[in-house]
Amino acid sequence: MVNNYLDRIRKTRKKYLRYFDEKSKVLEIGCGNGELMRFFQEEGYSIHGVDTSLQAVRHCKTLDLLVSHQDAISFLKQNESSYNAIICSHLIEHINYSDIDLFIECCYKSLIHKGILLIITPNVRHLGGTASFWNDPSHVRPFTVASLQKLLKESKWKIIDIGYDRDTKIVVKKGFFSFPIDIVRVLLGILIYGHSGLYTEVFAVAQKLYVNEVNSPFQS
Fold first, then answer.
1. CA separation for the pair 147, 28 (Å, rounded)
2. Cα-based distances in Å from 35 to 23, 167, 201
3. pLDDT tens for residues 168-194?
4. How far is CA 79 from CA 24, 48, 73, 157, 191, in A?
5. Taking the CB of residue 2, how many other CB atoms lie within 10 A of it?
6. Where are the beta strands (DSSP E) in 43-128?
7. pLDDT digits over 115-173, tens only?
8. What kind and span of H or E run contains 132?
9. Of 62, 63, 22, nearest to 46 (Cα)?
10. What structural domains and CATH numbers belong to the chain?
């Protein structure tokens, strides 16, 4: 299972490496069991993880990964201007509405100038996406492309890229019974949501710039 998940990480996260310098010092917030950290290490990056789950942190340490057991905001406040890149993969949907602006601000302060913030979150704009989202009781708020754009636009970020992750396209299984069901599910999803109904993840890549430097086609 872990190997299959790691293979999926390699397939879906490889494209994001173009936003990271090879010498980047990377922080993953909400690192979980460390699969994404392992991928970045394989690619030669220095990466540090932080997570509130003691069990996850202990597991990461068995894999010789550098991790800290701490809440994100406290950790970020203690490490300002420390990282070239911050990754939040399937994390932002767990953060309370009252804390989200402070979290984004702390990410900004923890990055060096021109540092990169990568956010990946479930896409609820596909058939079954909303139901799947709320199957996790720790999810508190879904984000769409529009709400992610608004969140970053109202802060000090330059949005480099944003949209639906095309590598997370819904798979149509070839089984005798599953194939027609999946085809109907995909077609209905497109009918209801348009092209966004094909993908299971939303992403945003933003860069820390000073206010007078921010000039992005996404922020007009």
1. 22
2. 20, 17, 17
3. 987 767 776 676 766 777 777 777 778
4. 16, 12, 10, 19, 46
5. 10
6. 46-51, 67-69, 83-89, 111-122
7. 999 999 999 998 888 888 999 999 999 999 999 999 998 888 999 999 999 999 877 67
8. helix 129-134
9. 22
10. 2-168+201-219 (3.40.50.150)
Give tens-digit pLDDT for 46-55. 999 999 999 9
Continuous segment of H or E residues that includes residue 139: none
C-alpha–C-alpha distance, residues 143 and 120, integer Å: 10
Q: How many CB atoms lie within 10 A of CB 157?
A: 25
User: Tokens 């800290």 map to which residue?
Assistant: 68
Percent helix, percent strand, percent coil in the chain, to nearest 5: 45, 25, 30
Predicted model pTM: 0.89
Q: Under a CB-based contact definition with an 8 Å cutoff, are residues 133 and 177 in contact? A: no
* DSSP SS3 for 163: strand
